Amino acid sequence: MKNVETMQNEINSLSRKLKAVYLIFGGLLLLQTAFFFGTKAEAGGDKENQIVRTRGIIIVDEKGRERVLIGAPIPASKHRVFSDKSKALAAWKDKMPENVNQFWDNFQNLNKDAVGMIVLDENGFDRLSVGDQLPDPNSGKRIGTATGMAFNNNKGYERGGFGIIDVGGSERVNLGMDSPTGEALTLSVIDGKGMGIRINDRNNQIFLGNLPAKTWENQTDQNFSGYMFRQNGEIKNQLNTLAK
Question: CA angle, 239 as apex, 234 and 243 as ends, to 5°?
Fold first, then answer.
């Protein structure tokens, strides 16, 4: 015979599954209702009734924690670490310099909003951002205004993304993956300045790509198409197939 504790655990498990079923059923019912009224409006020629207009939506989990922020810009969240001073200081104190006040002054200047969607984990860390005017990473400002997506680890540090970024009027399309110490792998197309792949660690960088003269990674007087290896910022080896 099952003991009381085992039975209670099974009851709790069934309760959680039942809540999940309710959420799924509720979502399907909402979609069905929207489809019904949208179809009815279309049939009647009333196009305005097919559009839902709102400034923001916050979706919570079964424990009431705010987990998905949608808006233009996203709505404020009491659960979000990135926008709460006390939570941010507690979460990232191991990465802060000795001058905490200076850190916070710089931190306050970071863009924390977005036009689109941000997904938070159960601890309030940003895990996924999708949309326009993406938030800055908590480590510092972006070099321009970004549109696309970015994803973070479970401590809120950015680990990669894909999108287009405007840097002083020049557009860059980037696909990036970060290591704990910085950019690790980047695939870039930069208007007027070339395209290529960069592979980095703390001291070494490999570049493969095409570059016009006197731009980006190529500071020589001739166009570049090939391979370049840098160590501590100094070119150690390269192969330029366009070299004369």
Answer: 110
What gap in Å lies between CA 111 and CA 109, rounded to an integer?
Answer: 7
The pTM of this model reads 0.75
The per-residue pLDDT of the chain, averaged, comes to: 84
Report the Cα 117 to chain-centroid distance in Å: 10
The C-alpha angle with vertex 36 and arms to 32 and 38, in degrees rounded to 5, equals 115
Map tokens 């990674």 to a residue: 217
Helices (H), the chain: 4-44, 85-92, 100-108
* Of 169, 176, 109, 110, residue with least CA distance to 148: 176
**Structure-token pair, residue 42:** 């279309």
d(CA 210, CA 197): 10
Q: Which helix (H) or strand (E) holds 15?
A: helix 4-44
pLDDT band at 35 (very low <50, low <70, confident <90, very high): low
Residue 1 — very low, low, confident or very high, per pLDDT cuts 50/70/90? very low
